[in-house]
Specification:
alpha/beta; 8-stranded mixed barrel; 17% strand; 746 residues; Alpha-Beta Plaits; 54% helix
Length: 746
């Protein structure tokens, strides 16, 4: 309990550790006030109680009023907080003045009244504590008045006849003055001195730390690897660190100023770095960096050696120029290339000109006939002729391959007149020596051109010219850009992308078309492909995607999926589907792919099911296109048991000897002949001769494209026993044929 009281009292009097350490003057002023007031109240309480009792018994009510008023004033002043320090200090001062006046003016006993004069002598100390030196001096001057009264040593008549003299008043007043001078004022001084001593201790600690930091910084300054100097405002060197002194010693002449050490081109300004070289060594480059010192009149200058960096920057600059030359120039023709054209494109914004993408169309033929070295020479000579024959105002750039780009100002030639302008200015022949002889190489030019106005990017303008060039040909060598062509190209691209995406996402489906015998029994199915479009829930027919497969050479990807799905169907054959083999179509090029061929050969070698149930159909045209290698691979497949079918026989150019070499065992008569056997005797003879040829070679023959009963009757008369066509069934999904069970066809 006592500890809590002591702790609370310390906090109220602001004597705890935190408040003693703080340098805040309001804190110690409030602490002094509370110490003076509380000690005064406590120490004088006995005097006030006893004197009040004596006054009460003596009916001296004036004394009760005075003592009660002073007690209330002291307690009210003690209750004031930190925000009212000046008011509290003023009330304390007023209390002392009023107490002194009351003692002087209302006490008849002269010896007791002099104690009131002594109270005035405490005013300078109180005023100095709370109001400063001027107030203290004013108090000191004011005290001349009570001092003169003290010297007179004459009693004064009570003011207004009011006498507050009590029996024993001398003892009361002497005790009051003793307590105030011996306790209250010393406590105030002790509190102030405690703060001063604590602050002095803290200052001493901070001074030691600061001195230590100064010594550390001085050591860092002296031993820093970067030369540093302290200079005055005129640049005189006042102090230098070890690295700085080393530079000064290396100087050829005496260096008292910074500009005598470095070749400065302008005055040093704080915060602004400049580059300079040493007077003694011009290859030594330094960055002079004056520090921005806010609280110091001297200049601190750091000097960073950037000699290596400068040399590296110089080398980098050389490499950049070399790279620029390589990157933006064509070594073969010594022309600026397409990179440079793109780089300078932005500077031509707003100019009216035409861009022409020019191509040496027959360079490929020259390379094949005479070699690439000769082709390069022809291209270099052609570019030299272009520079000679084209007007000087025309900008010429080398583009990849055998292309050039011309930038033609419309003031020289309007876009619509580009073909005539090119006919007039383009070189037509290059002459070169071949030993003692001279070779003349004709130059066949093609070009695509467009107006450059409205193009915000070089790539877009080049693309437009390339599109126009793609539309040029021998009969129309110079083609303008047409936005309608772009629309068609984009449509074609979208179609191409859609087909590719559907293939890659495994949306290929296999449909079946039956092959029947003379009785109408299903003896086999031809596998036909369709593409499913899930988003639209549509099926793409062959004419909607096969042209894209052929044009973009996706035969391998396409055929792999067809074969995989056909094999999967054979391995999981529906119970309701007649047991019959499948025939898949090969376009030809995929057989020349080593991985595809090896996998197919391994499958036939390892699976009796495939040898019995999977047949391979190749068109006559696709086989002939690469007969040598295809013959070897077809023979290998036939040797392991694969059945080879020649599809669309009669539409290609196979000779009888080639037909024998293909190891095929089945011929399919093309529908082009079958569909006209009712109306054309010539077609009937061709179809019959094909059947006889197959029989003579020990091959089976299938007539495809049978659509009518009359066609079927004629084919039967000729001796055909195998048929395929819409008359027996159109291509349909596997599920469709599975539902038909064992339906009799024919």
């Amino acid at each position: 309990m006592l500890k809590r009281i002591v702790k609370g009292l310390k906090q109220f009097l602001l004597l705890d550790h935190q408040n003693l350490q703080t340098p805040d003057k309001d804190t110690w002023k409030l602490s002094v006030l509370r110490l003076v007031l509380l000690s005064g109240i406590i120490l004088t309480s006995a005097i006030i109680v006893h004197s009040s009792y004596t006054a009460y018994t003596s009916n001296l009510h004036n004394v009760l009023i005075v003592t009660g008023s002073f007690s209330a004033l002291l307690w009210a002043t003690l209750a004031l907080g930190k925000s009212k320090i000046r008011m509290a200090a003023g009330l304390l001062t007023l209390t002392i003045v009023l107490a002194g006046l009351c003692i002087i003016l209302f006490t008849v006993d002269h010896s007791a009244a002099r104690f009131g004069l002594l109270l005035f002598f405490t005013l300078p100390i109180i005023l100095r504590l709370f109001y400063g030196n001027k107030a203290a001096i004013a108090g000191m001057l004011f005290n001349i008045i009570p001092f003169s009264l003290l010297l007179r040593n004459e009693p004064m008549a009570p003011l207004f006849g009011v006498d507050i003299t009590l029996p024993g008043a001398y003892i009361y007043l002497a005790s009051l003055v003793f307590l105030f001078f011996n306790f209250c004022l010393p406590i105030a001084v002790i509190r102030v001195m405690a703060s001063l001593e604590r602050q002095s201790e803290q200052n001493e600690v901070h001074s030691k730390r600061q001195l230590k930091l100064v010594n550390q910084y001085q050591e860092i300054f002296n031993n820093g690897g970067t030369p540093s100097f302290f200079c005055d405002q005129q640049g005189r060197i006042l102090q230098a660190n070890k690295s700085g002194r080393k530079l000064i010693h290396q100087a050829q002449a005496e260096c008292k100023y910074i500009h005598q050490l470095f070749t400065l081109t302008k005055s040093l300004v704080a915060g602004e770095a400049v580059e300079a070289t040493l007077h003694s060594n011009h290859e030594a480059v330094y960055r002079i960096q004056p520090a921005s010192l806010v609280h110091h009149k001297k200049q601190l200058i750091h000097c960073y050696d950037i000699s290596q960096t400068t040399a590296a920057d110089k080398r980098i600059g050389e490499l950049r120029r070399e790279h620029f030359t390589k990157h933006y120039s064509d070594a073969l023709t010594d022309l600026k290339n397409h990179h440079y054209w793109s780089h300078q494109f932005v500077h031509k914004q707003g100019q009216k000109y035409s861009a022409v993408l020019l191509k040496l169309a027959n360079l490929k033929d020259i390379n094949l006939q005479y070699g690439f070295s000769r082709g390069d020479e022809v291209l270099a000579d052609a570019s030299a002729l272009l520079r000679t024959q084209l007007p000087a105002a025309v900008s010429l750039f080398r583009f990849p391959g055998s292309k050039f780009l011309l930038s033609i100002d419309q003031a020289q030639c309007e876009t619509d007149s580009i073909p005539e302008w090119l006919e007039k200015h383009l070189p037509l022949t290059v002459l070169q020596r071949n030993g003692d002889a001279r070779l003349a190489f004709p130059l066949q030019w093609q070009a695509g051109y467009c107006n450059a106005e409205g193009y915000g990017a070089a790539a877009m303008l080049a693309e437009s010219c390339a599109i126009a060039l793609s539309q040029s040909n021998i009969t129309q060598p110079f083609s303008p850009y047409d936005s309608k062509i772009v629309k068609l190209i984009r449509q074609d691209t979208r179609k191409k992308d859609k087909v590719r995406q559907l293939l890659e996402e495994d949306n290929l489906a296999i449909w079946l078309q039956p092959q029947v015998n003379e009785r109408g029994d299903i003896i086999g199915f031809e596998v036909l492909s369709r593409l499913k479009e899930p988003l639209r829930n549509q099926i793409l027919q062959p004419n909607q995607f096969l042209p894209e497969v052929e044009k973009n050479h996706w035969h391998l990807l396409f055929t792999q999926q067809v074969v995989e799905k056909a094999v999967a169907l054979l391995e999981n054959w529906p119970e309701n589907l007649p047991d019959a083999p499948l025939a898949v179509n090969l376009s030809g090029p995929e057989l020349l792919d080593d991985l595809f061929y090896e996998k197919l050969l391994r499958r036939f070698s390892e699976s009796a099911l495939l040898r019995k149930k999977l047949k391979l159909e190749l068109t006559e045209t696709s086989v002939i296109s690469s007969l040598g290698e295809t013959k070897k691979r077809l023979t290998s497949l036939a040797n392991v048991g694969a059945t080879i079918i020649i599809d669309d026989f009669g539409t290609g150019h196979a000779s009888l000897s080639q037909l024998i070499d293909l190891s095929a065992s089945v011929l399919k008569v093309d529908r082009e002949f079958v569909e006209r056997i009712e109306s054309s005797e010539r077609h009937r003879k061709i179809v019959k001769m094909t059947l006889e040829l197959a029989n003579s070679l020990g091959m089976q023959a299938i007539a495809e494209g049978v659509e009518t009963k009359a066609q079927l009757a004629l084919l039967r008369q000729m001796g055909f026993t195998r048929f395929q066509g819409f008359y027996f069934g159109k291509p349909a999904p596997v599920s469709y044929w599975a539902d038909k069970l064992s339906r009799k066809i024919g």
